[in-house]
Automatic annotation (TrEMBL):
Chain ranges of the Carboxymuconolactone decarboxylase-like domain: 133-208
PANTHER family: 4-CARBOXYMUCONOLACTONE DECARBOXYLASE FAMILY PROTEIN, CARBOXYMUCONOLACTONE DECARBOXYLASE-LIKE DOMAIN-CONTAINING PROTEIN
Annotated source species: Candidatus Ligilactobacillus excrementigallinarum
UniProt-recorded Gene Ontology molecular function terms: peroxiredoxin activity
Protein name, entry field: Carboxymuconolactone decarboxylase family protein
Lineage: Bacteria, Bacillati, Bacillota, Bacilli, Lactobacillales
Segments passing through the bilayer: none
Pfam annotation, one family: CMD
Length: 223
């Protein structure tokens, strides 16, 4: 098969080398493109990047849970398509051990976000707001956060990256604050977002790091 676009591929290879020296964990660096390609639906890229993650000792369970938790964000279709590609490389196909506490998810949500979404949707008719808020709590936080392969801090950071990839302003702003409250520093978040430059481009990254900086300043004023 002819090796096409060699000059372009070399430019990209040289460009991406610089990101290896940035101050984020090697595990996070390897998880980022897997999450982003899954959100984008670019599943043909996934086996290559999953192999790279495995070579760099990212646990299979961590890769899977980074994708499982995308279902409430991107929908079941994209997650199943991503998992099909990922399972070309890894055979583990289940959650890691979980917290034995049915209240864990709601406690995490309340600590980080309070009742923000419930309050936002309170005026919707016929209980619609409560339906959405209840399922956000029970499904998004309850079903996923209690599994231990990813920490809450890591989950919040990967979710923020997911919302940046989707370019949804409300969620980017909310999860910038949430990621800070979960224990990520402004520097950790900014450098993580910088590391997604090769996968989402400069406009989304520049926009998002400004939002993170504003969120950090807002949080500092509240304390």
């Amino acid at each position: 098969m002819k090796n096409t676009d060699q000059q372009f591929n070399q430019i990209f290879a040289n460009y991406i080398k610089d990101f290896e020296q940035t101050p984020i964990s090697d595990e996070m660096r390897r998880l980022l493109p897997i999450v982003i390609f899954s959100i984008q639906g670019v599943t043909e890229q996934l086996p290559e990047y999953v192999k790279d993650a495995v070579v760099h000792a990212v646990p299979d369970e961590k890769i899977l849970e980074a994708i499982y938790q995308l279902e409430p964000i991107a929908g079941i279709g994209k997650v199943r398509a991503a998992l099909k590609a990922i399972h070309q490389v890894i055979s583990v196909d289940n959650f890691s051990q979980k917290q034995d506490d049915p209240q864990f998810g709601i406690q995490v949500q309340q600590k980080i976000y309070g009742t923000e979404i419930r309050d936002l949707l309170a005026d919707l008719p016929d209980g619609a707001g409560n339906f959405v808020a209840d399922h956000l709590t029970n499904h998004f936080f309850g079903d996923f956060y209690q599994h231990e392969a990813l920490t809450v801090k890591e989950r919040e950071l990967l979710e923020l990256v997911s919302f940046i990839t989707l370019n949804v302003d409300f969620q980017i702003n909310a999860h910038a604050i949430g990621s800070l409250k979960a224990g990520n520093s402004e520097s950790e978040i900014v450098w993580t977002i910088i590391n997604i430059l090769p996968y989402v481009g400069f406009p989304l990254v520049i926009n998002s790091i400004q939002k993170v900086h504003a969120a950090a300043e807002k949080l500092a004023q509240m304390r």
